[in-house]
Design goal:
Layout: H1 13-29, E1 37-40, E2 47-49, H2 53-58, H3 65-69, H4 77-87, E3 97-99, H5 101-108, E4 114-119, H6 122-131, E5 138-142, H7 145-152, E6 160-164, H8 173-187, E7 192-199, H9 202-213, E8 220-226, E9 237-243, H10 249-263, E10 271-278
Parallel strand pairs: 1-4, 1-6, 4-5, 6-7
Antiparallel strand pairs: 2-3, 7-9, 8-9, 8-10
Helix pairs in contact: 1-4, 1-5, 1-10, 7-8
């Protein structure tokens, strides 16, 4: 059994990037009335209580969502939309709960849309089930998300987004995530696929980029943010590879990333990348 639990890291700078991108992608799906399908391969617990001993042990949220909230709603349109979703989870003027990817997306679903969540950690799957109990638009599955991609795509809606968010505790995940993404892409070539990755070892990230670039997808964009120089120890940043990004998504992130880099690195040292791996316009 893998030991990773996101509760220790909820709301950190990597979550800020991942969830800002996620909000942008789901907002793009909402532009059309037709229903869409969302699949989360590694869903986690759904929401996280930042006052628990687990969250307080690291306090990573203070250097992530905490810094954004300190700006009191300033920033680009996309970050304001993301912050409004986060603030809606707690009482006015306080931050107790941080929404994971499933909770954020659920707040953006319309009655015609559907969501499928996969999780294997025994504690997190129970929390996820409680979070979405009796919600007919959400399916919670104690399942390997990588295997679910084969079974669930293409969706009936023929529109949708798959989020790959493994913990990368196993180094082979860097290759597996691309292989599974391609299995999904071959079944659902018009869908959007988003791969999150940590920036711990630049060489591993570059190998991941090359795998995607050679995979045969038509379009893929890298969105990356770091709070420290590569090689400083630990996770210095994170990124998202978005396959089939929506119209104007690159422009949207071009506005958002510089602001995030400044706010999340108040002492300086923040950096970002916005790079087309495949299909540059």
């Amino acid at each position: 059994m893998l030991s990773y639990r996101h509760a220790f890291h909820a709301g950190n700078f990597a979550d800020v990037l991942k969830h800002t991108v996620l909000v942008a992608l789901v907002q793009s799906l909402r532009r059309k009335e037709k229903p869409f399908f969302y699949l989360d391969t590694h869903a986690g617990a759904g929401r996280y209580d930042l006052t628990t001993a687990v969250a307080e042990k690291t306090g990573e949220w203070r250097d992530g969502i905490g810094l954004l909230l300190a700006n009191k709603g300033k920033g680009p349109v996309l970050t304001r939309a993301y912050l409004n979703l986060v603030k809606a989870m707690s009482r006015k003027g306080s931050l107790r709960y941080y929404p994971g990817s499933p909770r954020l997306v659920r707040e953006l679903l319309r009655p015609q849309d559907r969501m499928w969540l996969c999780e294997l950690h025994p504690r997190d799957i129970e929390a996820l089930r409680r979070e979405f109990a009796n919600d007919r638009q959400v399916k919670v599955a104690f399942d390997d998300g990588f295997q679910a991609v084969k079974a669930l795509l293409p969706p009936k809606a023929r529109r949708g987004l798959v989020l790959f968010d493994p913990a990368y505790e196993v180094k082979s995940d860097y290759r597996t995530v691309v292989e599974v993404m391609m299995q999904g892409y071959q079944r659902f070539a018009t869908g959007m696929f988003a791969i999150w990755y940590p920036l711990v070892e630049r060489a591993a990230v570059e190998r991941l980029w090359k795998l995607v670039a050679k995979s045969g997808v038509a379009r893929a964009l890298v969105v990356e943010h770091s709070v420290a120089i590569d090689g400083c120890g630990g996770m210095t940043g994170s990124g998202m590879i978005v396959v089939n990004p929506p119209w104007q998504f690159d422009e949207q992130m071009g506005e958002t990333l510089p602001w995030l880099a400044e706010v999340l690195s108040p002492a300086g040292g923040g950096a970002f990348q916005l790079e087309w791996l495949v299909g540059a316009p």
